[in-house]
Amino acid sequence: KSANPQWREQFDFHYFSDRKDMLDIEVWRKDNKKHEELLGTCQVDITALPTKQTNCLELPLEKHPGSLLMLIAVAPCTGVSISDLCVCPLGDPSERQQISQRYCIKNSFQDIKDIGFLQVKVLKAVDLLAADFAGKKDPFCVLELGNDSLQTHTVYKNLNPEWNKVFTFPIKDIHDVLEVTVFDEDGDKPPDFLGKVAIPLLSV
Questions:
Q1: Contact 45, 21 (CB under 8 A)
Q2: Domain final position from 39, 74, 109
Q3: Is 21:47 a contact under the CB 8 Å cutoff?
Q4: Which listed site, 79, 100, 173, 177, has its alpha carbon 20 to 30 Å from 149?
Q5: CA 42, 31, 189 angle in degrees (round to 5)?
Q6: pLDDT per residue over 119-172, tens digit each?
Q7: How far is CA 101 from CA 95, 96, 104, in A?
Q8: What is the distance between the alpha carbons of residues 72 and 16, in angstroms, rounded to a whole number?
Q9: Which structural domain, as residue segments, surrounds residue 46?
Q10: For residues 166 and 124, what is the distance between their CA atoms, to the nearest angstrom?
Q11: Contact 170/80 with Cβ under 8 angstroms?
C-alpha cells in the first residue's frame, strides 16, 4: 500500500561476457494472491556501466509513470563457475591441495569473509512428471544459494534428462540453504514447476 516503496535488498547476478548484456527489470503490483498487474519495465545496458564502482541509477519506467532508484556495481566474479564434469575445479589434485591449504586452520583468520565454497555436481533427473498432454518435457535445473542463482541448460523432450554440470558457489553464510528446483521450459510462457529440494549447508 505504497506508491513509494523502499526495498533495500541486494542481489548478486553472475554476468558472463558471452551472455546478453541487458538487465531487464519489471515492477509488479499485487492486489491479492491471484491478481497481479505490471506497473512498468526498464532496462540497464551492463556493458555501458563503468566497472569496479557503484553506479547510482534512476531508471524511468517505460510507458508508465514512476521510476526506480538502483545501485548497480559490475565487479570481477570470484568463486563462481559452471563447468563440465571432466574439468570440475576439485578434479585437479594440485588445485585440491591449494584449496586445502587455503582453508587450513592456520589460515582461518586471513580473510574472515572467505568462509569457503560449495561445489555441486548436477548429474540427472529421473522419472519427471509429464507436464503436457503429449507427455513430453523440456527440463532445466536452477540452483540457488542465498541470492546467488545458476542454472543448467535445457534438455528437450526428455523425462530423464542428463545435465552433467558442475556448479561452484562462494559461501557467504554457513546457515544458508541450497535450493535445487527443476522447471519445464514453456516457450515464451513462465516455466512450469516440476519439483524442488532444499539442502541446508550445515547438513553437508
A1: yes
A2: 74
A3: yes
A4: 100
A5: 55
A6: 899 999 999 887 556 667 899 999 999 878 889 999 999 999 999 999 988 888
A7: 10, 9, 5
A8: 16
A9: 22-74
A10: 12
A11: yes
